[in-house]
Amino acid sequence: MKRQLVLALCLASMTAAAAPATSVAKSADPSNPYQTYTWDAKVYVPFEAATSVTVECPDPAAAKWVGEHFAAWFGANSPKVKAGATGLKPAAGDEAYAATADETGVKIAANTLAGTRWAAYTLRQLAVAKRGTFKTEGRILPKLSIKDRPHLAFRAVHLCCFPETRIQQIERAIRLAALLKFNYAIIEPWGMYKSEKHPWWCWPDAYLTKSEVKRLVAIGKDLGITLVPQINCYGHASSSRGCTIKHSVLDMHPEYEPLFEPAPLAPASSASYLDGWSWCISNPETQRVLRELIAEIHEDFGNPPYFHIGCDEAFGAQTCPECVKTPHAELAVRHFNGLAEFVKSRGARPMMWHDMLLDKSDRRWAGFVKFGGKDAQSILDGLSRDIVICDWQYSYGNMKESRKDWPTMKYFHDKGFSVAGCPWLNFNTMKPMADYIAGIGGFGIVETTWHHLRGHEWEKMYMSAAHAAWGSPVSHGVSFQRSLRLVGHDMKVTDYRDTGYMDYQIPPDWWIDN
Ligand SMILES: [Zn+2]
User: Fold this and answer.
1) Rounded to whole angstroms, how far apart are CA atoms 183 and 169?
2) What's the CA-to-centroid distance between 110 and ligand 1, angstroms?
3) How far is the CA of 319 from the centre of ligand 1 (A)?
4) What is the pTM for the complete model shown?
5) Would you say residue 473 has pLDDT above 80?
6) Residues 125 and 483 sit within 8 Å (Cβ to Cβ)
7) Domains of the chain by range and CATH?
8) pLDDT in tens, 104-123
9) Which of 141, 153, 174, 496 is the right S-S partner for 47, CB 3.0 to 4.6 Å?
């Protein structure tokens, strides 16, 4: 029963069959005492043109935003929205909100426009069409009272723009993340950002053009989700998955070979990862090019307050005759801090992955997947504390396991860094990870999605991370479906592939061989 209640509170639609016959006000989860709700699933109240919606917020833009978006979402059946006193008292905090719906109308109270948006999303997700008509003639809401506040202040999804990923899919993922109350989306281009300064640094037909980036950024700004660009400034320099040997630069513009580390003369077992996989960080041209790319893409993204410099999985780094002349830790610290200083000079805070900062042979991190060498601690000790460490825990606690302590996060935290927990498909770990981060005063959570932004995994990644970040027990189900459909309505989709959570229900070539 509780599971269904939380499903409906944060993210979801509600069905009468799943909800309780009587309502009980309570905290949704011990981890978040600021979250309470009550509703009566047997009593629905009107949510239609004649309904009065009152918005109370110190920001006068809040009531205007709700009015405009209700009109877009509900059309001629939209309730009337006005600013005014509600008598509701949201918790402290920029993103807290309170909302009620009863026979007198609907009330929203929040401290900022951000909190007001989350309230509006909750009501939109809970509203269903009035019954008994051919077409929608208005909506109804369960009689309800909600107070909500996020568990973590920084709640991001990490989205990968592969050549195989259509930009419509990225837009859907951004819009859906906002609807599920994530407030940041880190965008990793994978060679799909079309730089004008360095046009060689992308695949042909890169779809993240300046105009498309600015369009997506504007959508995010309106919806309350800030887009943060990422450039891989150490490993992952090929802009392709390592298992493919593809390289966005060396395959088509070999004249830029000096910028990348060559494969070693004595190849390791994973040699296919190594040729050009890492930037050559002793080459001053590398730092210049990366700074110019950072400046260009950061500006296109509207100069957001964060910038992700990647810097993970630099397998076999330091193979060229120049790099080997200098201790790796010295080169790495100079490279990372130089980029961090540059990002700071643009008014943003740098973020980077953590795995080159832990010694993979250190038994304290046994069971965690790491790629750092013996000099990892030297690198970490020399690293700017302005950098937010994104500690990815992709494997540990996978699926059925769970854990309550995260020693690597505590390690970074105790060293003076802000640290974000970054899960992937380890769904069961997200709630305890978020609780742990909140407990140590950590930075936030970054849900990575990689090449799994489709199907049931997409649903579970988004739903598990969203609930964890808002301090609710994790649940899945109808709420994702409804939210995704609302995104499609907002985009006015006409392409079959832009419905549901996979492009095709049957692979297009299936009929040929089967
Ligand atoms: Zn080099």
Assistant:
1) 18
2) 53
3) 6
4) 0.93
5) no
6) yes
7) 2-148 (3.30.379.10), 154-498 (3.20.20.80)
8) 999 999 999 999 999 999 99
9) 141
